[in-house]
Design goal:
This protein is an alpha/beta fold. The chain contains 10 helices and 14 strands. The longest helix is centred in the last third of the chain and has 21 residues, at about 270-290.
Length: about 300
């Protein structure tokens, strides 16, 4: 898939264009994207410029979003840098200059709640009124009787319900971060972990122990503050990669969450903690073996 920022786009051709922020690239987004060869998205999230205090924590990094979109068979990802200049662009200018002028859109696909342009005055009716392209409006998608939205998925992930979130996402919830040095306590206990400090700009699962995939291996992952030890450190994601022997320090690691196994708790002794960790690892391996999601 070709990835290009809009200012550098130098080829105008007939394009079938899906437009949206597509945070999480959930099943509703995939319905918008279906049948399109080009995805037009915005970076950073428009609300971070228009109303920073209301900007949500994001479900996916740009790199993860890019890779998920590529996996849908899209040929081209066009990224609009969203800044104050773009914020002041009228809906009419967006259509004339971007969709028609630069992209050459022949089909434009959006969600039914899509708004665009200065003051969010552009809507699906404005798009439908244009004769230069066909407008396709994807309806809301429901999963388990609930309308799918990035907001709903953020709530599920925050509550630790990563398996339900995965059904709405169309794939596992994934975090990405650089593996950093910890206090080596896991290694001393015989359970060495790859540690990620969560980026506060992004959603992370609620505290607990999870079955997950990481670096192609099933993993038992703890998200929390490690109440057994008074370390003074903040939130940490600790992944024990099953049957892995290697050095991941300084590398980007993606963790695909499968299921929450239990809450985070303090044990009567370190020995009791170690015994529970062994049970967690066995359960994580079993859950991953039975899961339909694949390793990232």
């Amino acid at each position: 898939m070709n990835v290009v920022r809009l200012p550098e786009l130098d080829e105008r051709r007939p394009r079938r264009v899906a437009i949206g922020t597509f945070d999480g690239v959930h099943v509703g987004h995939r319905e918008v994207i279906r049948g399109c060869d080009t995805v037009l998205t915005f970076d950073p999230h428009p609300l971070s410029v228009v109303r920073p205090e209301a900007a949500p924590k994001l479900l996916t990094t740009f790199a993860v979003k890019r890779d998920i979109i590529a996996g849908l068979g899209v040929q081209e990802l066009v990224v609009i840098p969203f800044d104050e200049e773009r914020r002041s662009e009228s809906a009419e200018d967006f259509i004339d200059e971007v969709l028609v002028g630069q992209l050459g859109a022949v089909v434009v696909s959006v969600g039914e709640n899509f708004r665009f342009g200065k003051g969010a005055k552009g809507n699906v009716d404005m798009l439908r009124a244009r004769s230069e392209f066909e407008t396709r409006v994807a309806p809301l998608v429901e999963v388990d009787g609930e309308a799918v939205s990035s907001t709903q998925i953020r709530a599920l992930v925050g509550a630790g319900e990563v398996d339900k979130a995965a059904r709405m996402l169309g794939g596992p919830f994934i975090i990405e971060g650089e593996v950093v040095h910890g206090d080596k306590r896991g290694r001393a206990l015989g359970v060495p972990t790859a540690n990620i400090v969560p980026d506060e700009r992004f959603v992370h699962p609620g505290h607990g122990v999870f079955a997950a995939w990481a670096h192609g291996h099933p993993a038992a992952v703890n998200v929390g503050i490690r109440p057994q030890f008074q370390t003074g450190r903040g939130l940490l994601v600790e992944a024990y990669l099953i049957d892995f022997d290697g050095d991941l320090y300084g590398q980007a690691l993606r963790i695909a969450f499968v299921k929450r196994l239990r809450g985070e708790r303090r044990f009567e002794s370190v020995d009791a903690l170690v015994e529970q960790m062994k049970r967690d690892i066995a359960e994580a391996e079993r859950v991953c073996a039975a899961a339909t999601v694949s390793a990232p």
